[in-house]
Fold:
Amino acid sequence: MMRFIRPFLETMPGVDRWGLFSLLVFFAFFSGLLWWVSRMKKSDVEDRKHMPLTLLLLLGLPSISLASDGTHWGMRDDTWIFILLTSAGLLSAMILALLSILKHMGAIRSEQRTKAKQSTLNMHGIGLLASVFTLSDSAFYGLFVANLFLMGYVVVLLDLVQTMAKEIAPKPRAELAHAEVVARVPWWLSVWQRINAHVALSEEKDILLDHQYDTIRELDNKLPPWWINGFYASVVFAFAYMFHYHVFKYQPLSGEAYAIAMDEHNREVEAYLTSLALNVDEHSIKFLLTEDRLKQGRSLFTKHCIACHAPDGGGALGPNFTDEYWLHGGTIQDVFRVIKYGVPKNGMRSWQADLSPMEIQNVATYVMSLQGTVPMDPKEQQGKHFPPAVPDSE
Amino acid sequence: MNKEIFHYDNAIVRNFAIATMVWGLVGMLVGLTVASQLVWPELNADLPWLTFGRIRPLHTNAVIFAFVGNGIFAGVYYSMQRLLKTRMWSDALSHVNFWGWQLIIVSAALTLPLGYTTSKEYAELEWPIDIAITLVWVVFGLNMFMTILKRRERHLYVAVWFYIATFVTVAVLHVVNSFELPVGILKSYSWYAGVQDALVQWWYGHNAVAFFLTTPYLGLMYYFVPKASNRPIYSYRLSIIHFWALIFIYIWAGPHHLLHTALPDWAQSLGTVFSIMLIAPSWGGMLNGLLTLRGAWDKVRKDPILKFMVVAVSAYGMATLEGPLLSLKSINAISHFTDWTIAHVHVGGLGWNGMLTFGMLYWLIPRMWQTPLHSERAANWHFWIATLGILFYALPLYWAGFTQAMMWKQFKPEGMLMHPNFLETVLQIIPMYAMRVVGGTLYLLGAILMTWNLRQTMKNGNLLRNEEASAPALKPVQGRMQGEKWHRWLERKPALLLVMSLIVILIGGIAEMVPTMLVESNIPTIAAVQPYSPLELEGRDLYIREGCNNCHSQMIRPFPDETERYGPYSRAGEFVYDHPFLWGSKRTGPDLQREGDRYPDSWHYYHMVDPQTMSPGSIMPRYGWLAEDVLDTESLSAKIAAMRTLGVPYPEGYELPGSKGLSPAAQDLQQQADSLASRLAGDGIQCASDREIIALIAYLQRLGTDFTSTLEP
Structure:
């Protein structure tokens, strides 16, 4: 499955993770629901009859039983409080860090946009963050959402701390007795109640409103804290979003976004086509005496060739390159071919496993450039005469 | 206390319940037919009135307004009498409501296949039917409101708030979106053009989902879930908050149907953020439904009715989470125009509306007929078949949507599209379409099983037409009662509640529509964009008649792949003469915004007569009759005049007959048709210039060329 998706994802800027994420959320919840409904057995019913299925969504939250006398899972509550507070502190630090990253990204984005306008976007020098996040929308909003989740998590943790602190405080005897009753509630139920700020089923008559409509009664449970806080968060998001796009203009609107996307697309294509051009062979090679070709050619020649052909190309075991006589042809195409495939019966080895096509091209160019120079100790003429090669025009 | 004796009207509920079942089967059967046509196009038997473009709107209208609509009335008429402790105010109005609504449905079932359509989604019905809808809706509202006024229950239960909001909002939506100028007995042009028309339409379309498929059903949930589970509603204060938040925020979210289009960016962003803010209010409803079942989950295991309701409410929660996610621009870039959207709406439609309707009917009918359900086992089977059906329906379409979007966007490294031929991306997902047919079949089988089961139940029992009840009359109260909080006070002020709902729902619509209509910078004009020629105008009306917009968009989004595939992206100024807009919402075929001059006329001719000759494997219907039928130009002058009234600058007198008897418009039409026919003849096609296909080709060849002509050097 992933093999099918991945190539698509990689070709799409900015939309890579979100589609899958949405799908996964949907599938997870819906199949979770079905799984839950289908696997219920009669024996489970008694235990589970109060368990709302949305609990499945919240399994990631800290699952700490609230009903006890000062220890949880073999650890004292004050230890727990310490751990929870520390985690809350660490998480807060992470939030701050993420916020600063977000801020930094905003700056990078506007910088990149300015550069993109000049259509010479240069990624170097912007630093590590830029290379990680670049212009990807999904990274930006991924962080943003992660931050929201973290904030929610911190709220839950602090809430737990508060509850536990209350529990540690000395209690009157009557309440202790009550606590024992509550302690029989399974852990997930108490967590669930805590998360939703439910009134327990056994006590719901306290919040039953006194009216009824065609026998329908109404409880007056508190708004689930995660729900109302989520609502607030979505309102904050809304304002942040509008400011982001329409006031601070951190990200471009559709027309400009299109121009940037087209730019990026064209650059990618261009880069690819350029890479094709570098992929030379004995047919496509052009004879150009450019300085960078000669420079790399010389250094490769010095490294690999002087043993047989002498440092000045005058020849030793191998033939002389400075005269107008060639064993296997005197064009740059011929020279390229000889370097690439070698002439094993004459002792010339193949270099294609060692040198990239571009490097072979540069060595061949350098070899051709030696023609007409005067070596210290020239080897005798070998092969046929070829007129000096003329460089191609660009 | 003096108890008054009165009787609930069950007969009207019976009528609506039976209509719900019957139209449900019809609507689903039509749906199954259109779904099958995507796999086997020949299923339309080359009959004009069976082609996809004409009966896809029939399916949507039938399931929304006939199936769900009757479901709403059945549930509202049953629950409202009991929640207000009174019979409906007027039996006569109840009957007008019932028969009027059925008449509207029948007229829809007749006109849509015949090609009488406005092309605006879920508002396709032509102007006389629009007026009928308005009248029947007012009858319903009047009857409801008078019933509220003569109630014996001091406060209004939350379900009734939702009914009130439904009534007032649907009325506003329907009236505003249906502003159209008639040019014939069954033909009209939308008052708005292009971008404005699109905004109004999707403000309507989105809120049809909100206030026809959601708020009334939330009202039903608030009645039937506690009834069926015998549990108190989870939280009164949650219902207050989510009610007001829901109706306020929902209205704003319409533009999320137009992300990445020529709609101004600010309006698109509003659509996005209000969709995100909508998650919590929607989930408030889900929570109040699911948490009401707290302590009753053992019953859910046994009772098929509660099972239906649990799946319904869960599907509601899923769809209302997914919707906002689809409103994020980055996700929308993938999902829009694909089957992802189709899957999404069917989770809502089949899951939320369908399953809640089934649960409600299984609960209602045995009670009204005073006998147990004929077969609980069959109801359980129905539940499982329907649930499986939803999965088999939705999952392949999610996959199809995702696959197709990815294929559209994929480039070769050399910069060309990986799948330049749109058809490739369609053929890739045909297997998913086939699986979707399986899912739809399962769901329909379930509904058939239910119909049989409930019919047997009716046979076994006796309908209690008038159900006796008693309650004391209300004594009038002055001012605030002791300890009464303000919202509690509001709950016994139905008129105030109605006015407040109206104000709350008007804010969002006004805030988005007024600037789009009035601020000129929102739609920059393009000088080269000119009105359609008379022949093209007639061709455009054929395009509308055949429902081409059901499969072809005319909206190129600003993405590299789209501009590579279709040409320069769409600008707001290109649509200023488009009454109505034809942007479309789904691409089963390619976008046509820049179709002009892309192919020779002869290509279009052959393609229209038999698409397979030009595009082997195409699932587009054959439109042979276009080449045979003579173009009806009788209303040409009415059309030109109407367009001028709407602001399209045709010259004065253009449509009036001159000295030779023909109007300049008719002459232009004749001339353009003749030259097109002779071009076809040059390619060896003998086609008289008065055939419909000539007009349609003329329209297609015009599409998008005004703007592209400005780009060429």
